[in-house]
Please model this.
Amino acid sequence: MAKITFKENLCKGCGMCVNACPKNILELDKTRLNVKGYHPAVIKDQEKCIGCTSCAIMCPDVVITVER
Amino acid sequence: MAVVFDKPKALTDVPFHYCPGCTHGIVHRLVAEVIDELGIAGDTVGVASVGCSVFSYNYFDCDMVQAPHGRAPAVATGLKRSLPDNVIFTYQGDGDLAAIGMAETVHAATRGENITVIFINNAIYGMTGGQMAPTSLPGQVTQTTPYGRDTSVAGHPIRVCELLSTLSGTALAQRVTVDSVKNVNIAKKAIKKAFENQINKRGYSIVEVLSTCPTNWGLSPEEALKWLQNNMIPYYPLGVYKDVTAEKEA
Amino acid sequence: MGEKVLMKGNEALAEAAIQAGCRHYFGYPITPQTEIAAYMSKRMPKVGGCFLQAESEVAAINMVLGASSAGVRAMTSSSSPGISLKSEGVSYIAGSDLPALIINVQRGGPGLGGIQPSQSDYWQATKALGHGDFQLFVLAPSTIQEMVDFVSLGYEVGEKYRIPTMILSDGMLGQMMEPVEFPEAKETAQAEKTWATNGHKNKRKKNIINSLYIEPQVLEDLVKERFERYEKIKATEQRAEEYLVDDADIVVVAFGASARVSRNAVNMAREAGIKAGLIRPITLWPFPENTIKKAVSHTKDFLCVEMNMGQMVDDVRLCVEGKSEVSFFGRTGGMIPTPEEVFNEIKKLSEKEAK
Model:
C-alpha cells in the first residue's frame, strides 16, 4: 500500500518521473495545463504504486511526496 | 502510512526557476537532504555563484552569500576563516569554477581550505544562453562554437576532479551524476561525505556532478540524460579521484 | 594615550588595525604596501587572528567580502595596480551593503606605472572604484598618526552606514617613519550585525548577502536607499583641516603627502608677507564642500596641489562655482613637489593679484 501526491503547480512536465517509474503508472496529463502552463505529471493507477520513491528521486522540482 | 519522501526542510518554499528537466533541482534537493540529515542548517552558510544557480540563495534555508563570478572559493575562504565552527559550502557551475574561477578553485584546494564544493558540470554556460564552457566536449556545438568545439582553436576540456586530485589540500574529489535513481543515491552519499569531511576538518572536498542542460543542448529532458550518458560520462569517467578517508583506511 | 613610538607608516597602520579589533587580513604583495602584509603575518598569529596571503588581489578582496559577511572586522591592502584588480570585489561589497577596510598605498600609474608615491588614484577612489552607482568612505591621512587614527574611524563609520571604507595613503606615508601614539586599548563596542551570515541557529530567518536584483524597480529603490545614507554621510562626516585660512587671499588645497609639502609652502608664503592658507581635505568622499565653500568669500585664488595631473581640482571647482579663481599645480609619475615649487606657484598668484 503506497500513495504518491503531486504539488501539481510546481510541476514543469519534464517527464523524468514518468521515465523513472518501474511500474509505468505515471504519465503527463495531456488534457490540461497547470498554472505554469505545463502538462502536469499524474498517476494513472495508485493501486499499483509500490512506494519505491524513484519518481520523487528523479524529480528536479521536488513535486512528489511519497507515503507508504 | 508514513511519509517516506518529502521536500527537505533545508529547502525554502520558493519554486526553482530552472528549466524543465534541469538537474540543478535534483542536486539542490540532495544538498538540502544532507544538511537536514546532519542537522546543520543553523550553522551552514552557502555561497551562491554566478550562473544559473545564482538564485540558489533563495532556495536553501540557511544563510547565503552571493559571490562575484568565479570568486565563490575566495568568499567561502573569508567566511570559513571567520567562522571556523560553521559549515561553509559553495555551489558553482563549470564556467564559474573552471574558467573565470579556476585560480580561486585551485588555490582553495591546495590550501586545503576546509570547505565543501558542489560543482555542476553541464558542459555549457546556461544563464547566458549556451556558450562554450571550459568543460564543453570536443566537437560540441554551442552558441560560440557553432561548428563544434575545435580543440585546435578553443583548446581542450578540463577534467576538474583529475586536476584537483593532484593537490595535497584536496580531501575528496569525486565525480558523480544524477541520470538514474542509482546514481542519484551515489551522488547523495558523495555530497554527504563532502560535508562530513568539513565537519571533521579534513580539507577541501569537491563533488563534481555531471548534469544536463536540456534547453541549451536543444534536447528533451529524456534525450539530455541519454546525451550525458553517451557523451559526457565517457569523457568524464565517474568515480572517486581522491579520498583521504579511504587512504587512511587502506 | 600611550607613549610615543617611532614607526613606519605601513606598520603603524597594520598595528592600528589589530588594535581596532581586525583579526582577518587578506593581502597580496605589491610595492609600496607590502610591509602591511608582512606586519600582519607576524602579528596575527600572536593575537589569534588570520593572516592569509591570497593567490591574487581579486581573491583577497573576495575573502574580505566573505569575512565581512560573517560580521567580523576584515581588511585588505594593496597599491594602485592591485586596487584596480580589487575593483570588482569592491563594487560587490558596496552593492551588498558590507563594511570593509581597504587600504591603497598609492604609486605612480597608469599600468604598472612606478613604485614611487603618487596621488593619481583620487578619481578612482572617489568616483569609480568599480561599476555601478556607489561610493566609498575615503580617508586621506597626511601623518603616520593619522594612518593610525583613521583605521578605527574607518571601521566605525563604515559599520554605522554599511559602506566600505578606503584609506587612501601613498608610498611616502607608507614608507616614512614618525613617532605615533596608539589610543589606549579599549574594546570599541561594535554595533550588533544582525545582517551577518553567520548561521541562523534556527533562531532567526535566514540572512542573504547579495547584490543581484533582477527587478529594475527593486534595484532602483535599493540604490536610492543607499544614496539616502550617502546624504547622511555627506551631512555628518565631512572632515578637513584648515591652516591659516581665515584671512587668506590664496588658499592651497591639498591632501595627504602633498598637504605636508603645501603646509611648508604656505609658511614660506606667510614669511614673504603673502596671505596664504591651506585647506587639507581629510575625507575625500564625502568631499569637504562646506569648508571650501566657507572660504570662497575671502579667497581670491585657490591653488590645488596634487601628486597627479589634476584630479581633486575638479571637486574644488565644483565647490567654488566660478566665484574665485582655481588653479592647479602637480607632479606625477612618482615625483613629489617641493615646498619651493609650491611657494613659487603661490608667489605667481600673488603677483598676478597685485597687478
In short: Residues 24-249 of chain B form a domain with the Rossmann fold fold (CATH 3.40.50.970).
